[in-house]
Design brief:
This is Phosphatidylglycerol lysyltransferase C-terminal domain-containing protein. It is found in: Cell membrane. Keywords: Cell membrane, Membrane, Transmembrane, Transmembrane helix. Its main location: membrane. The protein is of the alpha/beta class and about 1000 residues long. The protein has five domains: about 10-170 and about 285-400, Metallo-dependent phosphatases (Purple Acid Phosphatase, chain A, domain 2, 4-Layer Sandwich), CATH 3.60.21; about 195-280; about 415-530, no CATH class; about 540-610; about 735-870, Aminopeptidase (3-Layer(aba) Sandwich), CATH 3.40.630. About 45% of the residues lie in helices and about 20% in strands. α11 (about 410-440) runs parallel beside α20 (about 685-700). The relative contact order is 0.07.
């Protein structure tokens, strides 16, 4: 074999404007399959849309030769003519290269000169065992290694990849074991499992849904026997109408309970069988099969590489590692994935047609995107389709680095958080439903037959008193629903007691078994979900509770004494009126007095609920502790904080939560935990840091909101049960491309020339080393031009100037011809932009100044950064810019939103700020507000508005409900994205 035809390693130099697509594991057969046909279609579509120079790397297992020993490379290409032609057209283009690395299923390419020659002559491919992609970026030289990855799997690694007699264990499994497994009805899809470690779950699921479910019709036999046993008693009751009216309900309820019991037993048997098989430990490897290449990527990055891309495991991944990244291109084949089922049923395994690849290009630095396409193959049975929860097809960029935590996200902590959010939401709705049903039942007359049966046992006073008590318990449950939504343990315990009491009261007031069973069912479910309510009241809350109880007792006692006391017949009269009976007159105090006492009792109940369910306050931090926390926060921001908002985590009014090497900056506003910026720290710790912080917030009973969230963080927030709402866009100026030439720059060019001719100059200072006189003058200038008493801007303003500890900041000051400072811009570092982010922009207001002075300062700053070789400048934030510009949403509703926003803009200058930023031709980066629940929009909106100084801008749920796609950030173009490190 000529090693020049298939070298051990190929080095490919790429220009800064090149794009690279890396895919693997196409497993092209001698006859096209549905999976290879879909992959062919998608790749052809992507290649036809290619623009500019670049490379395609098919990173191993392109052709299936192990599974088809008589197959050839030429036969596989001939079976996929559209892909073959598209690859040939691609390699014929200028500046484009096609590279095929050798996998284990197409290992013959490494030693069969004929196979390598066919690839070269047919599609213009260069073959190699490995390829190093060398990118020339403005940030420096970046090298990415691509190899198939079977060398990291002992079962499929070759001792000598060029030896045709070398035959690893995996080849024998593919050629001898898997064909037999595919012929077994139960194991047919076992070789295609996306996670082979789930083999036990797969066998259990298929056994239940495809073998036991068709026999479910035999469950009708015991039901028929049960009905036959009840027919005799039913006939006797029907023949006596009086008895039927009294006891017919109980017979029907008993039959329903027996049917429900049988269904429950069947479900328990199903779960037991499934659990036993799922826990069997079958399967050679699980989701950890990418661990070895991930470790190899970390080792390569320690040597100076930017990252490693492999395939082989069929498990797509994009993860940050110290100093770089690891990517796995998944596959272009049919895979079988586990999907959750409805109604507590075992999961369903769904065959999918998956197409995955990685794209690399340069935007200031190297950018890596993981593209995943998934569609159902439609092979599930009817029972499986009924049981499985619907999951939409995937067609998206699911991850991008730099900029987010990677994919798939570590799910343990985030899944727990999402589960807690869902549990609390359901608990609040369920308890509120029980309360509403209880109120409706209390004010409705009981059924005559049931009421007569009840009076055979109890005196008439008992059901009437019970009906009155149901009103109070239902009212209390309505109040407690809010506390359950917030995770309060007091609300959980009280609701549990009231639900059990309510069940008893429903039976006593009229044998309302339906309402009683509903209350007991909800109570039983709450007992099981007790871990979802971890927030305990602090000592201050308990003290206030005792004060309210004592004050309430005094008020009620005093009111009773003033009204002449409440006798037993008064209580009875009030109870009768609550169920619609006005026969018994109100003795002693008049109806108005009793109504006043009832209102007083309800008011005290509401006040007591408010005290018990209030959010815990932020623990006070001493001076020495806060100084230590601030010093630690500064170290983390200096090391890991590169975003345009990250330095603002050091504001004086923020608190800090530390976990690992990560920092979360937050403040408590109106009982809401307001987080900004996004957590700061190593990307591989992001998901765990967020899970730990939300657990911390849960313990204090704080609903969490994130203000100014970046798009790359949305997958983590959404995985944790939060919901993003589009808030606006941040303007980013590319200093290297900025120019005052041309028609678009006419307005700012005129302002710039006018101010320069007036004799103004801009000087740059380190704010921590300002001369004292200049510092005092600038602080006075900032106060003079500020609207209001304090500096506002929780997420995008530092609110201090010239502090000695704020080293490494930049101040651009516009000096008049006589040296007087008339305007300034204060900048904080933004390493992700290789530049700066705007903090303050101020100008003098006590005298006439030339128009365009702040424009002049900005333009001079851009020129200054350009001469220093720095890249980006973050300007102002434009609220709802994309909605105002018509870039989000279509149709009448979106047009109505734009009209409403323009009306609001008259008083808030939203549109004015957008147009001001637009003069500098920026790249727009979307920002979001992330809420724990849309029901919290009003209170959290108030907290956000107060924090940002945007009190004029209401956070309107229906208006601002512009959500991103449920996957990771939508794929941006090279021109739309900036500031990636």
């Amino acid at each position: 074999m000529n090693e020049d035809l298939v070298p051990d390693r190929l080095t490919l130099d790429l220009p800064a404007d090149a794009t690279v697509l890396v895919g693997s594991d196409l497993h092209l057969h001698q006859t096209a399959t549905p999976a290879t046909a879909r992959m062919e279609h998608d790749l052809v579509e992507r290649l036809e849309a290619w623009d500019g120079p670049g490379a395609v790397v098919l990173n191993g297992d392109v052709v299936e030769l192990w599974g088809e020993p008589d197959g050839t490379v030429a036969g596989a290409l001939a079976a996929h003519p559209a892909l073959t032609a598209a690859l040939r057209r691609f390699t014929d283009g200028p500046g484009r290269t096609l590279v095929i690395t050798v996998g284990n299923h197409d290992a013959a390419i490494a030693w069969d000169e004929k196979a390598a020659t066919v690839l070269r002559d047919t599609i213009g491919a260069r073959c190699a065992l490995q390829v190093d992609l060398v990118f020339a970026t403005p940030a420096g030289r970046r090298v990415v290694r691509c190899e198939h990855g079977h060398a990291y799997d002992p079962a499929n690694a070759f001792a000598d990849p060029r030896d045709p007699l070398d035959s690893p264990l995996g080849q024998h499994i593919v050629q001898q074991v898997l064909p037999e497994a595919r012929r077994a009805p139960l194991l047919g899809d076992l070789p295609e499992l996306a996670d082979p470690g789930a083999a036990g779950e797969f066998i259990g699921s298929r056994l239940l849904y495809r073998h036991l479910a068709p026999a479910a019709k035999w469950l009708l036999v015991p039901l028929a026997v049960l009905l036959a046993l009840r027919i005799h008693g039913l006939v006797r009751l029907v023949s006596h109408p009086a008895r039927f009216e009294r006891w017919g309900f109980f017979l029907g309820a008993g039959m329903l309970a027996e049917v429900a019991l049988i269904a429950l037993l069947v479900l328990l048997v199903i779960r037991t069988v499934y659990t036993g098989l799922a826990a069997s430990g079958l399967g050679p490897r699980g989701r950890g099969s990418n661990a070895a290449p991930n470790a190899a990527a970390a080792a390569l990055c320690a040597q100076g590489f930017a990252g490693l891309i492999t395939g082989h495991t069929h498990q797509p991944e994009l993860s940050p590692v110290p100093g770089g990244f690891y990517a796995n291109t998944g596959s272009g084949t049919r895979v079988v994935e586990r999907r959750a089922a409805r109604w507590f049923l075992p999961p369903v395994f769904v065959p999918l047609l998956r197409r995955v690849w990685v794209e690399l290009d340069v935007v200031h630095d190297l950018r890596i995107r993981l593209v995943v396409h998934e569609t159902s193959s439609g092979e599930n049975t009817r029972v499986e389709r009924l049981a499985v929860r619907r999951v939409a097809d995937r067609d998206a960029v699911v991850a991008q680095l730099p900029g987010q935590a990677g994919w798939p996200l570590p799910q343990s902590g985030l899944q727990r958080r999402a589960r807690l959010e869902r549990t609390r939401r359901i608990a609040a709705l369920a308890v509120a439903a029980v309360a509403v049903v209880g109120l409706g039942s209390a004010f409705t007359a009981p059924l005559h037959g049931r009421f007569d049966a009840l009076l055979d046992v109890f005196p008439v006073q008992a059901p009437r008193a019970a009906a009155a008590a149901v009103v109070f318990t239902s009212t209390a449950l309505l109040l407690l629903a809010w506390g359950l939504r917030r995770g309060r343990s007091v609300a959980w315990a009280t609701a549990l007691a009231l639900l059990f009491s309510s069940a008893v009261l429903h039976v006593l007031k009229g044998l309302d078994l339906e309402e009683a069973l509903l209350a007991l069912a909800v109570a039983g479910w709450l007992v099981r979900q007790r871990a979802a309510f971890p927030t305990h009241p602090d000592r201050r809350t308990l003290r206030w509770t005792l004060v309210v109880i004592a004050a309430g007792a005094a008020v009620v006692g005093g009111a009773s004494a003033a009204l002449g006391g409440l006798r037993a017949d008064t209580v009875r009269a009030v109870a009768e009126r609550m169920v619609g009976d006005h026969d018994l007159p109100l003795p002693g105090a008049g109806p108005a007095s009793v109504a006043l006492l009832v209102a007083t009792g309800l008011s005290l109940l509401i006040v007591l609920s408010g005290v018990l369910l209030r959010s815990r306050e932020l623990p006070a931090t001493g001076g020495a502790d806060r100084a230590a926390d601030l010093a630690r926060a500064r170290r983390i921001v200096a090391r890991h904080g590169g975003g345009t908002l990250d330095y603002f985590a050091l504001r004086d009014d923020k608190s800090w939560f530390f976990t690992g090497d990560c920092l979360v900056a937050y403040a408590i506003r109106n009982g809401v935990c307001l987080v900004s910026p996004d957590p700061i720290g190593p990307p591989d710790q992001h998901a765990d840091a967020w899970a730990q912080f939300t657990a911390f917030a849960d313990r204090h009973g704080w609903p969490v909101s994130v203000l100014g969230a970046a798009e790359g963080w949305l997958p983590i927030y959404q995985a944790g049960g939060l919901r993003p709402i589009y808030l606006g866009d941040e303007a980013i100026v590319d200093c290297t491309a900025f120019s005052l030439e041309g028609r678009p720059a006419k307005s700012i060019r005129g302002a710039y020339n006018r101010v320069r001719k007036a004799g103004y100059t801009v000087r740059f200072y380190d704010p921590a080393a300002l001369p004292p006189a200049l510092a005092d003058e600038l602080r006075a200038l900032a106060t003079e031009s500020r609207i209001g008493e304090v500096e506002r801007g929780f997420s995008m303003t530092l609110s201090r100037l010239g502090e000695a500890d704020d080293t490494g900041l930049m101040l651009a000051v516009a000096h008049a011809p006589d040296g007087r400072p008339d305007a300034f811009c204060h900048w904080v570092p933004a390493a992700d932009l290789n530049g700066w982010s705007l903090d303050l922009m101020r100008r003098r207001t006590d005298r006439e100044l030339p128009n365009g002075l702040t424009d002049f300062v900005l333009i001079e700053t851009i020129h200054h950064l350009k001469t220093r070789g720095e890249w980006g400048l973050g300007l102002n934030f434009a609220v709802m810019r994309a909605v105002l510009a018509g870039e989000r949403g279509e149709g009448r509703l979106s047009e109505l939103q734009r009209q409403l926003l323009r009306r609001f803009s008259d008083g808030t200058q939203m549109e004015t700020l957008w147009h001001y930023n637009e003069k500098f031709r920026p790249l727009w980066r979307p920002r979001y507000v992330v809420l724990s629940d849309l029901s919290n929009v009003a209170p959290q909106g108030l907290a956000i508005a107060g924090a940002e100084g945007l009190t004029e801008i209401p956070i309107l749920g229906p208006l601002l409900r512009q959500r991103p796609a449920p996957h990771a950030p939508a794929e941006p173009t090279r021109q739309e994205v900036a500031g990636l490190r």
